[in-house]
């Protein structure tokens, strides 16, 4: 308890950054989707480091593990949708000295290396064409010299889809084949046909630098200096924290958890005039790497650190300024988070559950100590191992609702299929049963056994309750997830709900009521009563 108190105190000091991250060990992982384990069993075998006579390198093991996963999750056929929808919760160790602290609502940044396959390709290319060996040293950005391998692995982005056309122009300058050079320049041009081809061939097919070097082989003459000059650094990925510093399990280690969707999909089919068709399977650099690293944990393998080749992840905190739990426990909340957008809300709810449990124990101890002992010495509250359930026979959530000591919480979650990707189903049901969550609403958009519904449909069905919680009880609304469609649709739904009630009460037109409702939603944002954590 003392440790948790210190950890949850919070700190304005940030000890780890993108340039100086904490190297965190993976200490656990689980699929949040109903995903078969056959693929991760094969991937784990590829990462095993106890096979007699094994001389494979770290890169070899990672490449093999990722290939096993790809083979085990085909994206064509009857299970394509489920295979392409894999969500993992990963548990990461924190430093024991509390130099990396967080609060619910915060995110962590993770710095990833280029894929082992991309690194191997470029190192082989530099050795073949320029005689550069991976162990040679060089200085990047005037810093301490590092090896060529380290520079290629961590300092230039080989794997992100190309968005900047200047990369194509630069590669064309190194091309020794005139036709390849002209094609690259055409793809980068402002010619309408060139722009259309760039969109279909580069953008929609998610081509990266290594793809271009492979398909335009005369560009492989590019120098190391050329690569370092035209390619930017690898952008860190950010993930919402799904745990609470107040809710650690019995482990002796400090940790946090995040949830991520494995990015794995097929690009649109591209047909050429000569009958050639192009369609590529694309995997996310960060998430396919993490899935491979998690594979021994996903199957519950023993003593993972000693028996498998597992990298540490370079992490750093990204605190949030506004996306926080209300400071007052009596403030109601409406939490709207489909898919992995629910992750920070799981952290919120675990934190609130721990807060209520701590208050519960303190209050019960006070009741018992005040009403039981009248001797010559006093019991301390912490000496009394008794719960409010023992004292009153009431569960935590119901009791607090009874004396109005914490506001109601409504959780809206959406997913495709009830049986496959209802993330945190067990936790949600438990939080609902205990009373921490008063209203649990789940929408399924592709469940064959139910009508296709989305979170905004559930909000409309609960219009009166939503209106009352916000306009009468002062609830704070949180939205987390896709900012391209879901967040906009939810905000429009809130405007619609408020407008109907305003029109009914005022007797005015719906047009006027809608304008008032939209102004009210904008005002909620300004007052931090409507908070968004969204991504594209």
Give a count of the beta strands, DSSP E runs of length 2 or more: 18
Which structural class best describes the helix and strand composition? alpha/beta
Strand order of the largest sheet: 16-15-14-17-18
Mean pLDDT: 88
What gross morphology would you assign? globular
**Spatial gap, N to C terminus:** 39 Å
Helical content (DSSP H or I, runs of 4+): 40-55%
- Strand residue percentage: 15-25%
Largest beta-sheet characterization: 5 strands, parallel
Low-confidence runs of at least 5 consecutive residues: 1-11, 367-404
Radius of gyration: 27 Å
Helix run count: 21
Task: Please give a structural write-up.
It is a single chain. By secondary structure, this protein is α/β, with parallel strands linked by helices. Helix content is 42%, strand content 15%. It has helices spanning 2-7, 38-47, 58-72, 80-83, 116-130, 148-154, 166-174, 178-187, 192-203, 209-215, 224-230, 285-298, 304-307, 343-372, 388-392, 396-402, 425-434, 455-461, 463-472, 486-506, 510-526; strands spanning 22-24, 26-31, 87-93, 107-111, 137-138, 146-147, 237-240, 255-261, 264-266, 270-271, 277-278, 281-283, 313-318, 333-336, 409-415, 439-444, 476-482, 530-535. It has a five-stranded parallel β-sheet, with helices on both faces. Strands 1-13-4-7 form a four-stranded antiparallel β-sheet, with no helix packed on it. Helix 2 crosses helix 12 (285-298) and helix 20 packs across helix 21. Mean pLDDT is 88; it is low at 1-11 and 367-404.
